[in-house]
Amino acid sequence: MKKINAVLVGCGGISNAWLGNKTVKEKVNIVGLVDLNPAAAEAKKERHALTGAAVGSDLEAMLKSTRPEVVFDCTIPEAHCATTVTALRHGCHVFGEKPMSDTMPNARKMLAAAQKADRIYAVMQNRRYNTEIRALRRFIATGAIGNLVAVHSDFFIGAHFGGFRDVMDHVLLLDMAIHSFDQARFLTGADATSVYSHEWTPKHSWYKSGPSAAAIFEMTGGLVYTYQGSWCAEGCPTPWECTWRLIGEKGTVLWDGAKQFRCEIVTGETGFTRQVKPKTVPRTFPKSHSQGHSSAIALFLESIRKGGVPETVCTDNIKSMAMVHGAVQSATTGKRVQLNA
Ligand SMILES: NC(=O)c1ccc[n+]([C@@H]2O[C@H](COP(=O)([O-])OP(=O)(O)OC[C@H]3O[C@@H](n4cnc5c(N)ncnc54)[C@H](O)[C@@H]3O)[C@@H](O)[C@H]2O)c1
Predict the structure, then answer these.
(1) Does residue 37's CB lie within 6 angstroms of at least one atom of ligand 1?
(2) CATH number listed for the domain at residues 128-289+322-338
């Protein structure tokens, strides 16, 4: 397959996961690197040996001079809307970092721009692309624990980033919980219909706003999903993928967010607690869908070349985004919020 020409915008920390992965090295020709800080773009050019890439701070000018087919948006959340809309206006397909946008009106604007341009705009949700979550989703779909009735996830990491996260509003819900909410939709196949949430900034917080939050979602099919998390919890961290408890009509499965599953299915019909038996969750999944950024980018490129729609196309991802902004609204108003992407 002929390499696809791409410009990458936003040459900070996460751009290494894009520029350094196998898919991009094999299938993409990076023709331009853009950052408000040109030195950051220069540094990525050197680090990833992108000798042919132009470097600049003006996206519009870069698109005019390099005419790429694709733009990778690795800028900060507040810049996603302007970056994506500009790229779409230049006829590019866009694959952008999460979260889709800083506000719901901006998310809708981006979706409308993609439809008007008749181009694909998809969002990076790399935490859908690992072996265990894929295997777990397949296991749930077999009906092994019956219909799901409740899903619970925990996220606790004392993360000291510095940079934009320290000063942004609603930092956990906006910049991290989007992964967990999207994982919940992915695992259950259900969408959120309402949310009630609480957000707080602990006394010892090194973030300005909202590093801790809890949220209760009602989902389609009568399912309830609860989330609790913190980015300023020192000690005993969970994995970045969260720890999960999924309860079905016939049993429960736990995922430690890493390599371990534990599942028990009810077998008894009498007694205070019914007898259960363990069940194995098969832990394999094809590499094509389990290599994080590399898999997500490969599948995005395939949909451009062969047709089809990426899993995290904006028309779908806006439903995960609505969970985030609904949780923010609920936390701000103290009221339950009905969701309508
Ligand atoms: N998928 C993941 O697991 C994951 C992990 C980390 C970060 N992210 C996401 O990636 C994005 C970037 O995060 P980061 O950690 O790399 O941040 P960062 O601060 O390290 O880098 C962002 C870069 O974007 C540049 N920038 C900002 N506005 C710009 C604009 N309008 N035009 C061009 N360049 C601009 C900044 O100068 C900076 O170099 C965020 O949306 C973040 O949520 C995703």
Answers:
(1) yes
(2) 3.30.360.10
